[in-house]
Design a protein that fits this description.
Blueprint lengths: L1 H18 L24 H12 L4 H8 L3 H9 L15 H13 L1 H4 L3 H8 L5 H8 L1
Helix pairs in contact: 2-4, 7-8
Length: about 140
Amino acid sequence: MIAYVILSNKISLFLNLVLNPSPEPLGPIPHPPICQPKALTLTRDQRRDCQLLHSIGWSYRQIHTHTRRMIRQIGSACAKATPKKSSGRPPLLTQAQVKELVEFVCVSSENRQMSFRKLTEVLDFEVKKQANCSALL
């Protein structure tokens, strides 16, 4: 009996909302907070430009208004000695292994037609076939 009363109350409330919608919304629709996007890292050339501008006497604020980079990025770029290229992931095969792989493939037409999996088995560099593929392409 109690479940029937609760169900009938819910149904009547639903019908009331459907048949008699409120003429205006109750207030503004809340929006999620605006997040600042993560600042991208500066390239080597951008760090070099920041260092150059700072060395000729520009302040961090002036460099910021000119380049539209964050002041913290400018400060870290000016604090480092020389801008270096980002190292990235080290290659799986050494230069000697790559040279051996290329020489092996160029020796005969049979070797040129081998699959990457077969090359991995024959040369046994203890790496996956993807390493051989990226070394040859």
